[in-house]
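Changelog-linked ticket: FHN example.
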Amino acid sequence: MKTLFFAFALLFLTLTISAQQKQANPELIKNFQDMKFGMFIHWGPVTLRGAEIGWSRGHQVAADDYDNLYKEFNPVLFDADKWIKTLKDAGMKYLVFTTRHHDGFSMWDTKFSDYNIMNSPYKKDVLMELKNACDKYGILFGTYYSICDWSHPNYPLSNIKGVDKPDADMDKFYTFLKNQTKELIEKYDTKILWFDGEWEEPWTHEYGKNFYNYLKGLNPDVLINNRVDKGRKGMEGVTISNEFAGDFATPEQRVGAFDIENPWESCITICKQWAWKPNDKMKSLDQCIQTLLKTVGGGGNLLFNVGPMMDGRMEQRQIDRLKEMGNWLKKYGKSVYGTTGGPYKPTNWISSTRKGDKIYLHLFSLENDELKIPLPGSAVVKNCSILKGEKLKFEQTKKELIIQVPQNLRDKIATTIVLDLNSDSGKIKPIEI
Ligand code: FHN
């Protein structure tokens, strides 16, 4: 009888502990949210053709040509130190690098696939070099990993119509996924597993939940996005929920919806294409900074994507744009890092963040010299000034704050104003303008 009791107690304890591993470490989530700004990098042999990674296989680039590009791939000018220095100079705090996209090519020295960079003319483990450079510069090291793999014989689907997969076997493929991601955790100590390619039919909610728990079992502190499971539901990225696994939501190519309760991160390209494309259209500095400020103003992080070239260099114009963002953040970063979104929900002309007894306003345009915004009388403004600049004249009624913002004090990209309150800014409910 006693043995039976202890057996049940042990089973209950095991189930309880395993259930606990489904939650992310709240402190690590808060650190991630406080970072606000990361670099996404999409890179692979496809840059030899300047076409989109994964999607161009069998379309803009013939499949046979695409799948053999690695035999030419020799990025002799790759310099992990330069890449991570560029990331840091941009004011970014973390990296997410494409280790294996939908095309199935592994950009690291993996034991589980010969289709990897060690079998290219380059023969070096770029992932380990990036990890070491991130450690050197104090940058959080994260890895993108595609669940779907259109070239893998055991993955049932291909992105090319009519391609037969006689060796399709999802259980074998799931073992492959577990083996490779175990390498990313145990050999490269990735802090973020950024999944993608989860939307296709062979990957089920069951696989997603089990995979999340397996990974958390290897390292409970690794952050895992909501694309490990089936909860993303398209490009809106949908916020995380108890129904689906994942530690943060992932809206794509858009600023996510205002949400200061659940962690989310918008992934957006600095150009049009994810992977490098010659003469691709690049966002202006205004667009870059305002995208960042609307994202953090909505409570999210921005994962901003660059696509390095076939020879291993990032384009100088992208390096220059990122440096300009870093210069802006050197001056006004206090209104970004470690803040919470709101209280004013972002619009096309204003965004806001807050921390302690301060509210930061980011004005993208102003019709005249007077700014009028709603503010509950319980939030009493003691001072109002340009962040690191001049004091501004203001008056407050029971429901409104009126600030004089003369033209000569404005920043052409985003005028940053700081309001000193007599109370905690976190108490103010979100305000729609
Ligand atoms: O198909 C991919 C795409 O190539 C790119 O990697 C983006 C980045 O989030 N994710 C997928 C589309 O949702």
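Closing comment: Example verified and attached. Residues 18-335 form a domain with the TIM Barrel fold (CATH 3.20.20.80). The pocket of FHN is lined by residues 53-55, 196, 252, 267, 274 (CB under 6 Å).
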